[in-house]
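Build the 3D complex.
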Amino acid sequence: SQTIHQWPATLVQPVGSPLSLECTVEGTSNPNLYWYRQAAGRGLQLLFYSVGIGQISSEVPQNLSASRPQDRQFILSSKKLLLSDSGFYLCAWSPGLAGYNEQFFGPGTRLTVL
Amino acid sequence: AQSVTQLDSHVSVSEGTPVLLRCNYSSSYSPSLFWYVQHPNKGLQLLLKYTSAATLVKGINGFEAEFKKSETSFHLTKPSAHMSDAAEYFCVVSQRYNQGGKLIFGQGTELSVKP
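Done.
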């Protein structure tokens, strides 16, 4: 069966510091991968998605970047965090096959920028 | 263009009574529709999905949803609420075969269950 991991689970960082959040998927190959942010009391905002190694699509201009160095690894980064980067970050995967687009979510990372 | 509207930001029910969470969608093409549940500080879990087969879709934990094309609705129901059902619920639409498999999320409905 497939599983998705995210770490760390929680993170407190000062403004201006760098960020690296990691997501890995097990038990599947060639997945589509996604990064979402969920601000307090709000819905999910898609940040990035990837349909293959090295292929990253950005949905909104922002202070963040994403990379996919391996098939089942997806990394969210920032060089300098802003207060507005605080939130709950969720990674998700989908089978990547045409017509099968339900997504499966990781446990999330709670980021607090002080 | 696609969009989804969850008509209630918060729903409160008593344990053992029916649950109705309302969702309307807009899609130019045949949509796929989903309901996800999120417990506090957890990831999202897929409850059920509609992908053009039966219009009445049964999901996990006793939930079901009915796709009504004429009303562009996909309401989530459960006959009898349990305390463990208290969570945030998201209605989601996607255009089948869209590039990247992107999903459009509603703003969520918080379900409270009173003892």
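The first strand of chain A starts at residue 3 and ends at 7.
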